[in-house]
Amino acid sequence: MTANWQRRWHPLLDQWVVIAANSAQRPWSGVVTSTDTATRPQHDPACYLCPGVTRASGHINPDYDGVFAIDNDFPALATHAPEPAPTEDLLCKTAAASGQCRVLCWSPRHDLTLADISAAQMCRVAELWQTEVATIELNPQVKQVLIFENKGVETGASNLHPHGQIYALPFVSDNAQRMRGAQANYAKTNHGDDLLNRLINHPAHKDTLLVDQSEHCSVIVPFAARFSYETWVVPHRPVSSITELTPAELHDLALTYQRNAQRYDALFQRPAPNITLFHNAPCDDHTDNKHWHFHIAMQPPLRDQTKLKYLAGAEAGMNNIVNPLQPEQAARQLRDSLS
Fold it and tell me: How many degrees, rounded to 5, is the angle at CA 171 between CA 170 and CA 175?
């Protein structure tokens, strides 16, 4: 199978991804990212997420030990967003940007990422993920709960303290609608089969795209990866939300996730920038939510150790991604990185 000029169908997003591995060899005179591994302090008095620091809002962080969660002081969504004046103009339609934004600190240490913390602390982080989603989903105004992490300056992170965020949305996002429809359609046309379970058990993934496997989870580079070193952490038992995982499954997910984060650091020889997305089913009572399979997507914005992957003009115009690395090669490099 040639690595160049191949389209691969992305079954969760119902769209084509172009694999153009030859483009990685083109001469490069553009921007490169720093590989500086300078250490950060354990505590930064200028960091708004460190224990004991007064934040920009005037609130003082407690001297917390372990995990710490707060409402975002500068949220994209407001709990009591004002309702705009009603209008029947479909060309200028508006609605209140109501919702909730949370900040989740993984550790009081300013210098430790999820790849660095202890296994016990990693399990506490996973318990925080589960608790936060379960609590927020009780709000009937919330239609989708998205946990995400922007790790590293390359992702646009405004604070380098190890943390993630939650957006509790009053609508179902575009990608979630695509994924929900794709999984439901697959089940309805394949005797109720689960799309992600069939995917992780497909020979292509088990033979060449499997990166790691634990008792309860598999880590794969998806066949139609949109980013060069994208991986998915997929629980073997198809649950629609992280809230449905048993304690054993949750802790296994946490440690599998942590190994994958360590794998990226080893591959890129530094704390690797990453965008991580926790894909829970929407909580809007849609009948197709029952076909959703929770998983975590990790999407480093790098095409190699020093080059960032930008969405260029063609990709932005098409909304179809060009991946400059063959997914099978990425999986092999990730498998070898911790050996």
Answer: 140
Question: pLDDT digits over 193-233, tens only?
Answer: 999 999 999 998 988 999 999 999 999 999 999 999 999 99
Kindly report each contact of residues 69-76 with a partner whose C-beta sits within 8 Å and lies 24 or more positions away, as own/partner.
69/102, 69/103, 69/104, 69/105, 69/128, 69/132, 70/102, 70/103, 71/100, 71/101, 71/102, 71/103, 72/101, 72/102, 72/103, 72/165, 73/48, 75/99, 75/100, 75/101, 76/101, 76/167
User: Hey, what are 47's tokens?
Assistant: 């960091």
pTM of the model: 0.94
Domains of the chain: 42-75+97-337 (3.30.428.10)
> Given the DSSP bridges, would you call strands 15-19 and 322-323 parallel, antiparallel or unpaired?
parallel
CA 313 to chain centre: 24
Catalytic residues: 163
The 8-class DSSP code of residue 103 comes to E
